[in-house]
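help with this record:
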Amino acid sequence: MIFGITLILLGILAAPSLLLSKKPNAQELLDKITPYQGWIGLVFCFWGVWGIISSVLNIGWLTTFPIYWITFLAVNVLLAALGFILGYGMINKHLLAKNEEAKAKGEVLLAKLRPLQGKLGMAAIALGIWQIVTHILFF
């Protein structure tokens, strides 16, 4: 369930226009969070990558809990993608700066993901809600 809640929060950070259209005073909150956005993205990126690895290691769930496993994998893919987009500055500074080839590949990946940020944010919110519902129903 924690994945669903964090995915909803990450989706709100990734698609702030959705939040701003509903609450005009939300800009103040977003301004407070912005300095930490890189660190938040970095943490979620690693958490998503670890979740993807965990999904693959627990592929046996696919035979007994297929909906939950597919949801778990999709949640972690979105966590990793949105975390990468939001935390790219920190990832570039701390991990990619020493290797030019890795830095170039990171910039290419960011260029592909950046136009999808709003859609990924909306998908994250929807999938976060779905993850919470499936967790309640199956566990």
